[in-house]
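Progress report, Aim 2. The chain analyzed during this reporting quarter is listed below.
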Amino acid sequence: MYKVLKNSWALFLGMSFIMMAYGFQGSLLGVRAVQEEFSLTATGFLMSGYFIGYFIGAATIPNVISKVGHVRVFAAFASLASLIILIHSILIHPFIWFILRLLTGVSMVCMYTVAESWLNDRSSNKNRGSVLSIYMVILYGSIGIGMFLLNFSTPKNFQPFILVSVITSAALIPILLTKKKPPTFKKITAMSLNELYKSSPFGIVSSFFYGTIQSALFTLLAVYATSMNFTIFEISIVTFLLAISGAIAQFPVGKISDFYDRRKVIIASTFGAAIFAVFTIFVSGQMYLPDGLATSKTWFYIFFIFFSFCSLPMFSLILAHTNDYITKDKFVAAGAGLQFVFGLGAISGPFLCSIFMDIVGSNGFFIFLFFFHFLIGIFGIYRMRIRPTIENPDSQFVAMPQTITPAGIELNPTTEPIEEPIKEEN
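Predicted structure tokens for the chain:
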């Protein structure tokens, strides 16, 4: 562990700054959009821009990195991300923010790709699991810390936007000063969607639905909390709980899935998330009753923690389930394919969720989450009836963030290269 930190501290420190700014920015823009009285549909539309940019960047950035190099690309797109957040505070309009969010998505996937390919290059088969675990903790921990920065100043002021820019720019310092030689970048080709679907229909369908859930959850949670009259501090608590409880849940849920039928664990997790979404709706309705009848927001926090605990490990579960049905040499390609499908779902998530909220009110947010979690569970039950479970000794659960790129998926120790047999000379 010490050796991993010693060799990669600059990357970890740089990414911690990036994720701190990312967590802060997401909540900041959500609250500011409500304060500017953007319609819910407009807010969902502009938030979807991030995932469109992420999707575009994931397809184009590998070629840019191959031509220009890791350090220059990281520096260029980190600078772009730092500049973009400042423009948010100057040009306040939903369509302009949509374009800016799109550019932020391109910038973020670029920085993820650079960092994860660099970490993968510095990892050996013996320490890949440790590197990925540290990376996971840093990502979720930094996002959680960043969400508390919402208390720095009111989102109506320009100071929070400047702070996001400063934190993003600070990420450049350790990355650019590292003495380590940049890795040789290799582009990873995903499996075709047809081949991936034939291998695991449940994997590809649930990944698409889960993309809609996660994108809406992370981009519109602050919007929901603001519309429910939460204070800035309470909003930061809710968003912090989302990041931290999701990170903590990865390992116990993953271990259970290695001992029991993985599809049953996915179905139990998704139905659990759906149930706690309903409980959260019920409790949120009780919070604003007259004095003496109202319930404490503590119950809202508790049920939301349980929701996050059930929901956030699901991408890793879906990836491990898909790997159960393919050979080890296709693990990375399948992961890249699932990430592609996840991205397709993520593009529509915020916009669709905002429509739910527009029709039924703020709690349309949790109705949306309930609906898509329920769909995953129903399809999972259907698939279990027509296809038997397969035990694949090469496949195991490995906790991964939803933002992982194909380069990051290679950090999974189960994807280590299969050595070719040595031919004996006659």
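The mean pLDDT is 82. The two ends are 44 Å apart (CA to CA). These observations will guide the mutagenesis work planned for the next reporting period.
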